């Protein structure tokens, strides 16, 4: 048997094996992806259910169990923390927050565009929030 024939055959066998294997891999990837996709849908739906429950908590529309109420209060807390953290970010960027209504105001404004109160005090952008850098 010719040496080069052997090599050729070996190469084409390998190529076949590889393409079959990569087909299986592609199938697996597809399956994994569709599972990932469905899990995403489930998460989204659970989120939407949660949001509806949270809204009914906010509007005081439904009687909710104590454990759900607890989670809703936790959500309130988290939202407040996010708001506070965002206010920190804003003040770091040199944007002021209205003392009266909390509206974000650019540094060069004298009056709040939302409530009209005068933006008072030192214009150094430090506001009243202390940020500790780590
Ligand atoms: Zn204001």
Give a structural overview.
The chain has 134 residues and is an all-alpha fold. The protein has two domains: 3-64; 85-134, no CATH class. It contains two helices and two strands, in the order ααββ. It has helices at 3-58, 66-92, and strands at 96-97, 104-105. It has a two-stranded antiparallel ribbon. Strand 1 and strand 2 form a beta hairpin. The radius of gyration is 30 Å and the shape is elongated. 3% of the residues are buried.
Short description:
This protein is mainly α.
What's the N-to-C terminus distance? Answer: 73 Å
Class per helix and strand makeup: mainly alpha
Number-wise, the strands total 2
Radius of gyration (CA) equals: 30 Å
Helical content band: 55-70%
* Rounded mean pLDDT score: 82
Hetero groups:
zinc ion
Strand order of the largest sheet: 1-2
Low-confidence stretches: 122-127
* Whole-number tally of structural domains: 2
What general form does the structure show?
A: elongated
Count of DSSP helices? 2
- Strand fraction equals under 5%
Describe this protein with a few key phrases.
mainly alpha; 2 helices; elongated; 2 strands; binds zinc ion; single chain; 2 domains; 134 residues; two-stranded antiparallel ribbon
